[in-house]
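ok so I'm stuck.
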Amino acid sequence: MEELLAVDAGLRTGLALYGREGRLLWYGSKHLGNRTSLRRAVRTFLADRPLLRWLVVEGGGGPGELWIREADRIGIGTMLISAEEWRDVLLYQRERRTGAGAKRSALSMALRVIAWSRLPLPNRLGDDAAEAVLAGLWAVLQVGWIPSVPGEIRHIRPR
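replied:
not stuck anymore, here's the structure
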């Protein structure tokens, strides 16, 4: 089974792992205190995922470049995107009129993706993990693992 990893890059890193059928397998965030810790974590994390075929990174700069460089080195396909790219595809125009509105809509949609994937809902979902979940959903659409956003994600409400 192939996997795709989405990363909201930074010292506070959001992570979302998707399976070949397009469902989220797990998600979370890690605080990596400095660049050395980040570099070590990137190497270890990517080396421990033998089924990983794709890495999508939201956010460039130093942290994003570390993820991309390591994935390229070991032969994992990479995509570097901005939040605007996945927002344009996943959120309605009315949901992204303001930055605060886009954040609220992203959190809500990420919770629907988690519910659709049959994973337990968190007590609190951080922005970094939510953005990784949605960058990953965007990426599974781009690589063709699912043909479109499932209707359940657009319409279900998490409990």
